[in-house]
Specification:
This protein is α+β, with helices and mostly antiparallel strands. It contains 5 helices and 19 strands. Strands 11-10-15-12-14-13 form a 6-stranded antiparallel beta sheet. A hairpin with a 4-residue loop joins strand 13 and strand 14. The chain is extended and about 75 Å long. It starts with a helix and ends in an 11-residue tail after the last strand.
Length: 265
């Protein structure tokens, strides 16, 4: 049977109107992520929240209300960006209508006045730090030493391309971990720059030449010394992977002294 064309057009219009007036799925759950971890004092952490219907399907693009339940320790933006303001427990709530989800995490960081000082070869220099919580920069011989920091209660705040991390430690834990034979160099730090600069040693697979100095400078590094088959230079940590990829480069290592680990030079 053939239907008149006008009738088919009206059927299509009715079906389209029926679909457009259908109620969207109602939100049935709200989940905030990440729901674990911690926040560095003065640092920031981006949270997200997902609404889902009764079948578990996501419902995007719904406006959410974010609220800091502990305003003394954190502040939160309308988009879920949390800023650590004071040490202590923190709670954040996300809400959509009657649905809500709350997460808890600690705000941690150094305590008391910070004095820049090094722990090297068994002692602090020039003075011993006084805060109970220390924010340290730790240089290790290689990345396999990092678990030793976390197993002693350290909290890694940032990692680098070099075997170098920033970590929070209880002062007593630091004293127990360090010794005269420790291969680590420790530095109490008060700032966290976005792109830390290092003095590195660059080993070449061939003899060096003045052209290498020019190439390093053009690359964004500041040459310090040119040896027979190695060079030292200052450069941002972000350039280390690309420098290691140079065809004539054998290794790129930090130019920090160790108490027990021998230098490759």
């Amino acid at each position: 049977m053939r239907f008149p064309r006008t009738l088919l057009i009206w059927i299509g219009i009715v079906l389209a109107c029926s679909d457009s007036t259908r109620e969207p799925p109602a939100p049935a759950s709200l989940t905030v992520a990440p729901d674990t971890g911690w926040l560095l004092l003065g640092g920031q952490r981006q949270l997200s929240a997902q609404l889902a219907d009764s079948a578990g399907d996501p419902l995007p693009d719904r406006p959410l209300e974010w609220r800091a339940l502990t305003p003394a320790s954190i502040a939160i933006s309308g988009g879920g960006l949390v800023t650590g303001q004071a040490l202590g427990p923190a709670q954040v709530e996300a809400r959509f209508g009657t649905l809500a989800d709350t997460i808890e995490f600690p705000v941690d960081g150094p305590t008391g006045p910070m004095t820049v000082t090094e722990f090297r070869c068994g002692g602090w220099s020039p003075v011993e730090p006084t805060p109970d919580r220390l924010w340290l920069e730790v240089l290790t011989p290689d990345s396999t030493f990092v678990p030793a920091l976390t197993s002693r209660g350290g909290r890694i705040t940032r990692s680098f391309n070099l075997p170098f991390v920033q970590v929070l430690f209880d002062r007593d834990s630091v004293a127990g971990l360090l010794s005269a034979t420790s291969p680590f160099l420790w530095l109490v730090t008060v700032t966290d720059t976005m792109d830390t600069r290092f003095i590195v040693v660059i080993g070449f697979t061939r003899s060096t030449s003045p052209a290498d100095t020019a190439a390093l400078r053009a690359f964004g590094a500041e040459p310090r010394f040119l040896g027979t088959d190695w060079a030292s230079a200052e450069l941002p940590d972000s350039l280390v992977p690309a420098l290691r990829a140079w065809p004539a480069v054998e290794y790129v290592e930090p130019n920090f002294p160790f108490c027990t680990a021998p230098s490759r030079r």
